[in-house]
Write a structure and sequence with these properties.
InterPro entries: DHFR-like_dom_sf (IPR024072), RibDG_C (IPR002734), Riboflavin_Biosynth_HTPR (IPR050765). The protein is α/β, with parallel strands linked by helices. It has five helices and ten strands.
Length: 186
């Protein structure tokens, strides 16, 4: 059975983007990107909202851009090898392989995906993750906390949700980012 993981870059005050939509405070450097690549190897399926998919689909063609460093090429390879499910009522077609569109988030279907999977899954994007969190589907939270205070914007955690968490791992990177990995207490 796979775990469902919610992982994003956040500001120190817990925002995935500020009020203007900016989120560059924790942009990965080579060290942190290599770490992310290693974590991505365990992922068999990415669950995306439309906006997050439109950001991440870059990895479908990243390997075709000239002069890409090895860690970028590796990320593209790992991303392309995983399945992707995009939850959207407006997206007409996808532009990546191993990708399908679902019109509505169905918690029971996600439970079935987890139960049938021998690899982990991620839920990516705060709006879609909020639905999974409220449905009790998220097994693990992974935060890459960047060295900035956003002062407002889109929060990592949805309002009104409480959870008992257990710290499973932590790591500090040279660019000031701190990785925190928490398991969800049941």
């Amino acid at each position: 059975m796979g775990k469902l993981i919610y992982s994003m870059i956040t500001s120190l005050d817990g925002y995935v983007s500020d009020e203007n939509g900016d989120y560059g405070w924790g942009a990965p450097d080579e060290e942190s990107h290599t770490f992310v690549n290693e974590h991505m190897r365990s992922i068999g399926t990415y669950l995306y909202g439309r906006r997050m998919y439109e950001t991440m689909v870059f990895w479908e063609t990243a390997h075709t851009l000239p002069d890409q460093p090895p860690f970028i090429l590796e990320c593209a390879k790992v991303w392309q090898a995983a399945d992707k499910v995009v939850y959207s009522t407006t997206l007409e077609e996808v532009s990546s392989g191993r990708t399908r569109i679902e019109r509505a988030f169905d918690p029971e279907r996600v439970r079935e995906l987890k139960a049938a999977s021998d690899r982990d899954l991620t839920v990516d994007g705060p709006n879609l993750a909020a639905q999974a969190i409220r449905a009790g589907l998220v097994d693990e939270f992974q935060l890459f906390v960047g060295p900035a205070v956003a002062g407002g914007g889109v929060p990592f955690f949805p309002a009104g949700v409480r959870a008992d968490l257990e710290l499973l791992d932590e790591r500090r990177f040279g660019n000031g980012v701190i990785f925190l990995r928490y398991g969800v207490g049941r």
